[in-house]
Here is the input.
Amino acid sequence: MTVRTFLPLAAAALLAGACVPGGTRSTPQPLCGPNDVPPQPSPEVPPMALQPLVRDIHSFAQPNEARVRHVVLDLRADFAAKTLSGTATLDVDAAAGADDVVLDTRGLAIHSVTDRAGQPLRWALGAADSILGQPLTVQLPGGGDHVLVIRYQTSPTASALQWLTPEQTAGKRHPYLFSQGQAILTRTWIPTQDSPGIRQTYSARITVPAELKAVMSAEMLTPEGEPVSGGRAFRFRMGEAVPPYLIALAVGDLAFRPLGPRTGVYTEPGMLERSANELAELEKFVDAAESLYGPYRWGRYDVLVLPPSFPFGGMENPRLTFATPTILAGDRSLVSLIAHELAHSWSGNLVTNATWAGFWLNEGFTTYFENRIMEALYGPERAAMLASLGWRGLQSAVVDAGGPTGADTRLHIDLAGRDPDAGMTDIAYEKGAAFLRTIEQVVGRERWDAYLRSYFDRHAFQPMTTETFLADLRANLIRGDAELERRIGLEQWAYQPGVPANAVQPQSGAFARVEAQARAFGQGTAAARLQTSGWSTQEWQHFLGSLPQRLTRAQLADLDRAFGLSRQGNSEILFGWLTIAVRNRYEPALPALEQFLTSQGRRKFVRPLFAALMEQGEWGRGHARRIYAIARPGYHPVTSGSVDVIVK
Ligand code: BES
Ligand code: ZN
Here is the structure.
């Protein structure tokens, strides 16, 4: 790989053969004529060399040649056409001699590309790859002023965007739009270099119908919007450089309620009361996270509670976590998901996986950190229960990945030729967290916490690879202690399949008691006679996960009657119950199953339930097809895309 350093723009301009304002005839460059645009190095350009980036197989960009530094969006949301259209203006840093810049796009209609002054630039879209989309190669403007103005429009089927009809919202009166960039979907709505190692600042002006409001993962400059022709415009600024998968937008009938000095919640007006109540402790979450691993560096921390089709539990968009409404249990029992997304403000958003092969660096660190926040706020027993649920998830992820020798049970994963979604398993989350828990146990909490805090400081706003993490750990924690390195087993954890034997398995006393009750039920004790009083959501989840795989129809009816499982309002408990019901072909639960699958589109719930149905012969396949026909139009492309391959 040729490593080029970046030159200051003025120098780059000379080498690129641009015109020179007021230059002398002794230089080989031509003087600027009346129609030339003199080079205008923007004042923010850092005059130092940029770090070379590792190759990302999921991006066409060649960031060591030319790299997007800042994005300015000026877009209008058209709900009738289901398109965003307008301009993306990109500020590019270029290596000496670079003539063009390669961007990522997928399904975008590119209308024109010009320089800052409106002069056309040469551009070409390359061959389409079904996973990566199409490279957009643009000639760099001369004069060292590497600003490109791309006029474009998104496709109505852009995978990052879901356009909801009024019926798909809580209020039923207004349409709604939201984006989801991770992992490689930002290129379906913004033509930029869509690689997590290529950090970019951004600003935006979003024009929406007058009755709607826009929010972004950025500082809101115009809370009330500004009247413009055909609607209202909202302006935003993100002054910290972020990977493009964290650029996010939502538009809808949104209300806001502050929850603390720097925290608050956005959602549809009819959801505001419930959401504010569920998230009442949000400010304390941020305080707890800061006490653990250092200052929160993003200003505000707000949560947007989305309509039920949001395909994920949560998404850590900076300053504005996007969350599924399925966490609104009414008793704050599912808020660990918010602890998780908040923790990403350090692991993921500050220190970011350089490529998706290092997804575990985002998710494993975050899962570990999430649990520490939960421990700080709710005590060690709650944290132990959550960690135990994660441990069980890890065991089944290992089975799903082909057992302990399966290639995809490795933390550093090989995604060649695959969509990065393939790496989105509990291996990254739970094996990653188990790795960090194991280091904690070996070196002691005090030393580990000091290390982790310094890790976030040292690498803030930088990309991270597995290799760099191991090097950092060796330099700053292990410091040549061969015995310590052996006890941790660094290389094995990072690069080998399976779960190493020294993994610290979480222990929960409460769960041991829950398992005893599940055993008793399996051996014939009636449900009503089990000792379940005072059980938390996590104990119910564990109970359902501990029951024998095969249950009789009488046992299922007994459970449902005694505990009202089919009527559960808690999404995690209901999901656990429906999983059991499908596995045992328990027909009386079918109405609840259909209701659940057609009323929310969170992939973590939807995909396994359809997969479980498909495993139940003609009986299950018939119900899967029937229910999916009703549910699919309401799902986000991310969810329907992964259910399509299951329900054929
Ligand atoms: N960043 C992820 C969501 C994600 C990962 C989206 C990969 C697209 C590609 C987010 O932080 C997350 O992990 N969400 C989880 C919840 C969490 C509590 C485990 C989810 O959505 O289920
Ligand atoms: Zn996460």
In short: The mean pLDDT is 93.
